[in-house]
Write a structure and sequence with these properties.
By secondary structure, the protein is an alpha/beta fold. The chain has 2 domains: 128 residues, Alpha-Beta Complex (Aspartate Aminotransferase, domain 1); 245 residues, Type I PLP-dependent aspartate aminotransferase-like (Major domain) (Aspartate Aminotransferase, domain 2, 3-Layer(aba) Sandwich). 38% of the residues lie in helices and 17% in strands. Strand 11 and strand 12 form a beta hairpin. Helix 2 runs antiparallel to helix 9, helix 3 packs parallel to helix 9 and helix 7 runs parallel beside helix 8. The model has no long low-confidence stretch (mean pLDDT 98). The structure holds pyridoxal-5'-phosphate. The site of pyridoxal-5'-phosphate has 15 residues, from helix 4.
Length: 391
């Protein structure tokens, strides 16, 4: 059907033409409840009026200049982001993968500056960091890597949530310069780890002079119930990557850093034509203002708790064994049985969900979701899950 598009995506047979809040409308004017937000992007809901105002105003004023000039909107956005994240400096990119590329380059420069010729980054099993060559090499999923060999060197892998495994690598590999992980693994099936694990990794990084680099592209910006998911664990990373919800749909990514990591990049080391343009940065500033003004972190925590509770109550009344995982409005229902067909079944019931890791229903609704819409998600999804597991 899409003969002029490279065949990169398996698409559902629906085209959305309009959005507002948690709702999307298709070409036939049928309304769908969006419990996925374009995979964690439209956290403020579709076409948020304050974001739309900024888009209009900025489109009328200035869209792009170049990073060879000063860009005030970048500075203003960085001044908003740094206090929220405890970071000191920011590099702006256009996507999550690009933000992670910047983090990987920071780690390598940091290593070379310490005299390590083959700097190596510890990465996790089941992780996802993007589709560029370096980020797919860092990703812990063979399906994402297959066919793209030779992979980028300089990564060693540990099981997620296993501090001992990192300690063992530390004992045998003198080239390690950093650890890169998602505090809540998203694509990998919504997995998190204990406070002890995170504080243990932080301590190890401090002892060995490694950078702790967190990929919060999916878990960040209020979704977990805090500005960033690692803040639940009371640790501060050295490098922090953000993207997705930062522009509420306008492409932007950010690689933030503090301490030594904030000063390894110098002119000539890194850059981007579009990254940090006045348009994307102004929109992202408005996104952060709305998140702050409407206290969306607290709202995500509250609504996430309700949704989790509602599902738990439904499952308790049955003998179904479903593992409910996640934090805030980043929720995974692990059916422990392949269930990708539920995406199509939910679509037919006008609900948008996603299945990741084959057996995990992933819910990433807009953070502005109302109680009534939470009920609609449960009322629609529970019978589908029930039928699926009983069949
Ligand atoms: C944790 C994480 N890192 C990186 C990425 C890649 O981001 P992008 O698709 O914007 O390059 C994603 C996208 O799903 C992600 O969830």
């Amino acid at each position: 059907m899409h003969s002029t598009l490279i065949d990169a995506y398996k698409r559902l047979a629906v085209t959305f033409v309009q959005g507002e809040g948690c709702w999307l409308w298709d070409k036939q004017d049928k309304r769908y409840l969006d419990a996925l937000s374009g995979i964690g992007v439209c956290s403020l809901g579709h076409c948020h009026p304050r974001v739309t105002d900024t888009i209009r105003r900025q489109a009328d004023t200035l869209i792009h200049t170049s990073n060879i000039y000063e860009v005030d909107a970048q500075q203003q956005l960085a001044e908003k982001l740094c206090p929220l994240s405890n970071m000191e400096k920011v590099f702006f990119a256009n996507s999550g993968a690009e933000a992670n590329e910047c983090a990987i380059k920071i780690a390598r420069l940091y290593g070379h500056q310490k005299g390590i010729d083959e700097p190596t980054i510890i990465v996790m099993e089941r992780s996802f960091h993007g589709r560029t060559l370096a980020t797919l090499s860092a990703t812990g999923n063979r399906k994402i890597q297959a066919g793209f060999e030779p992979l980028v060197k300089g990564f060693v892998r540990a099981p997620f949530a296993d501090l001992q495994a990192i300690q063992t690598i530390a004992e045998t590999n003198p080239n390690v310069v950093a650890v890169l992980l998602e505090p809540i693994q998203g694509e990998g099936g919504i997995h998190t780890a204990t406070k002890e694990y995170f504080s243990g990794v932080r301590q190890l990084c401090d002892q060995l002079g490694w950078l702790l680099m967190l990929d919060e592209i999916q878990s960040g910006l209020c979704r977990s119930g805090q500005w960033f998911a690692h803040q639940h664990q009371h640790i501060i990373p050295d490098v922090l990557c953000s993207a997705k919800a930062l522009g509420n749909g306008i492409p932007i990514g950010a690689c933030m850093a503090r301490g030594a990591a904030a000063s390894v990049i110098h002119p000539g080391n890194h850059g981007s034509t579009f990254g940090g343009n006045p348009f994307a940065c102004s929109v992202a500033s408005t996104v952060l203002e709305v998140m702050q003004d409407d206290n969306l972190a607290a709202r995500a925590a509250r609504q996430g708790e309700k949704l989790t509770q509602m599902f738990a109550e439904q499952f308790q009344r049955t003998s179904l064994e479903v593992d409910i995982r996640g934090q805030g409005l980043m929720i995974g229902l692990d059916l422990k049985k392949p269930c990708t067909e539920l995406v199509q079944q939910a679509l037919e019931k006008q609900l948008l969900i996603n299945v990741t890791s084959e057996s995990v229903i992933r819910l990433l609704p807009p953070l502005v979701i109302e109680d009534e819409q939470l009920e609609q998600i449960v009322n629609c999804l529970f019978p589908l899950i029930h039928n699926h597991l009983k069949s």
